[in-house]
Design goal:
Layout: E1 3-4, H1 9-19, H2 23-30, H3 34-43, H4 51-62, H5 66-75, E2 80-81, E3 94-96, E4 103-107, E5 110-114, E6 119-123, E7 126-129, H6 135-145, H7 172-181, H8 189-197, E8 248-256, E9 259-263, E10 281-283, E11 291-292, E12 296-298, H9 299-309
Parallel strand pairs: 1-2, 8-11
Antiparallel strand pairs: 3-4, 4-7, 5-6, 7-12, 8-9, 9-10
GO molecular function: DNA binding; formylglycine-generating oxidase activity
Domain HTH cro/C1-type: 12-41
Protein name: Formylglycine-generating enzyme required for sulfatase activity
């Protein structure tokens, strides 16, 4: 039975028909304009949408109910979604931040599937840290600025053996101050979730299979944070570590006045709390042994900085 390897206007029209949606409803479902849908359908097999739209169409078909899939197969002569997942390559999108030396990866602007309902949302291009901010990273910030150290450090030194573990016992304001010092920002909810799930809206960073062994959560019994580069098998489509488990991550997004969103679960969390689409928030002053952060940067800003350094 044939698979949809590349979507053209012909398959797009078949999918809309199979889903029994109007042009407006179908466009809203995909998160694209009605004009695009009309153009694709009018040109049939002579048009091939951009890769980001290919991905969103793959997701729409993959997440359709069995009856819709059956109608789609009938309309396309037996075609169905390919079982292979397309992974966004990190390649040349990986850089070292010129001020901190941290490894960051570019996430190109595109639509992604947001939240438990997989609502299509557009996010502009940005870079995000591949690793959580570690104790060693944070120590540089404390030494440079005189900022208060985490409460479990003694004499300005983090606990022995934890240099490459994520910094914890930091409030949202601590995290935001570090990001500002580093010439970055905290990620928004949308930026963080897209980096974790990819454009196809995978349930977990590594795919749709619930595999607690791929991350540091309560079920594994580790009982402490782990090194920020520990769980390679659990990386996201962009090669980003610890987007499930290890520590909750402070985000820039405000939920209500004085409260900020958190994502990712922690070593103290049940696995089902670590799902990237799940909502969580806390008061900006909250400070705990299972909460840390990573940073992001708008693509234009970082690329300008990289160019100036060169």
């Amino acid at each position: 039975m044939a698979n949809v390897q590349v979507w053209t206007g012909t398959e797009i029209k078949a999918l809309r028909t199979a889903m029994r949606l109007s042009l407006r409803e179908f466009a809203a479902h995909l998160g694209v304009s009605e004009r695009n849908i009309s153009k694709w359908e009018a040109r049939g097999s002579d048009v091939t949408p951009l890769p980001v739209n290919q991905a969103i169409l793959d997701t729409a078909l993959r997440m359709s109910d069995p009856d819709t899939k059956a109608r789609f197969k009938g309309l396309t002569g037996g075609a169905e979604i390919s079982g292979a997942e397309t992974i966004e390559p990190i390649g040349s999108g990986q850089v070292r931040h010129p001020l901190t030396g941290s490894s960051m990866v570019k996430v190109d602007g595109s639509i992604y599937q947001s939240g438990p309902s997989n609502t299509p949302l557009w996010v502009a291009s940005y870079y995000i840290d591949i690793y959580l901010v570690s104790n060693a990273d944070y120590a540089q910030f404390v030494a440079a600025t005189g900022h208060d150290m985490p409460q479990h450090w003694e004499n300005g030194i983090f606990p022995p053996g934890l240099a490459n573990h994520p910094v914890v016992w930091v409030t949202w304001k601590d995290a935001a101050a570090y990001a500002k010092w580093a010439g970055k920002t905290l990620p928004t909810t949308q930026q963080w979730e897209k980096a974790a799930r990819g454009t196809r809206g995978a349930t977990y960073p590594w795919g749709d299979q619930p595999t607690p062994a791929k991350c540091n959560v309560r079920e594994n019994g580790v009982g402490i944070t782990t090194a920020v580069d520990c769980y390679q098998s659990g990386t996201s489509p962009y090669g980003i570590y610890d987007m499930c488990g290890n520590v909750w991550e402070w985000l820039d997004t405000q939920s209500t006045p004085g409260r900020r969103e958190l994502k990712g679960g922690a070593w103290t969390s049940q696995f089902d709390r670590a799902v990237p689409s799940q909502f969580n928030d806390a008061n900006e002053t909250m400070c705990d042994d299972d909460t840390g952060f990573r940073c992001a940067a708008p693509a234009e800003d970082l690329e300008r900085l990289l160019h100036d350094v060169d």
